[in-house]
Amino acid sequence: MSTSTPWMIAFLILFALIMLSRAGYANPPGMKAPWPGGITFQVNQGNFGYISHNDPHTFYAWDFDLPLGTPVVAVANGTIAVTGYRNDGYGNRIQIRHVNRAYSLYAHLESFLVAPGENVWQGQIIGYSGNTGYTGGPHLHFSIIDKENYSLPSIFSDIGEPVEGQCCTSQNWFVGRVVCNPRSV
Phi/psi of residue 169, each to 5°? Predict the structure, then answer.
């Protein structure tokens, strides 16, 4: 047995314990697809995708094939925590803090219509899909994350747990109050 084997075993045990502690779904109750109701898009990459969903920050992420400029909507009620561009691969992003203390992350956006501190309602348009950051083309990168930006297991109430290649039709109809907020990046 090599001297690195005990360290590898310890690492694997620690990794398994971390993953088990994150078991269960972390999404806000009633979470729906992040685009307007009645529209169908395909999943380009699902959870644990081989292209870029291969680390703890992206394990439980989805890439949806939203064309450039498609409206992106809040998956559940919450408060805008983060908007803006970061040079970390996600480009323009929005993060919404939900009542269960999880955050929804919307990345590679063309523009956004919200600002930190604003309350948003499920189905409200918060921005438009884009091609910013590290991408192979326009799409929406979406995941539920914790405050350290680790992705968490989640399930949509309207489209379930979509897998790569699956076409999903949103049932995320805006029923909140009317908001007119023309801010953009």
Answer: -105, 120
pTM: 0.80
- Based on C-alpha coordinates, what's the Rg of the chain? 17
Distant-in-sequence, close-in-space partners of 53: CB < 8 Å, separation ≥ 6? 45, 46, 47, 59, 60, 61, 63
Provide the residue-wise pLDDT of the chain in tens; the chain has 185 residues: 566 677 777 676 666 555 544 456 788 889 999 999 999 999 887 766 677 766 777 788 899 999 999 999 999 999 999 999 988 888 999 999 999 999 999 999 999 999 999 999 999 999 999 999 888 899 999 999 998 888 898 889 999 898 989 999 999 987 655 444 444 44
Domains of the chain: 27-169 (2.70.70.10)
Q: Long-range contacts for 81-88 (Cβ within 8 Å, ≥24 apart)?
A: 81/116, 82/116, 83/112, 83/114, 83/115, 83/116, 83/185, 84/185, 85/132, 85/133, 85/185, 88/133
Q: Which two tokens stand for residue 168?
A: 């999903």
Q: Phi/psi of residue 19, each to 5°?
A: -65, -40
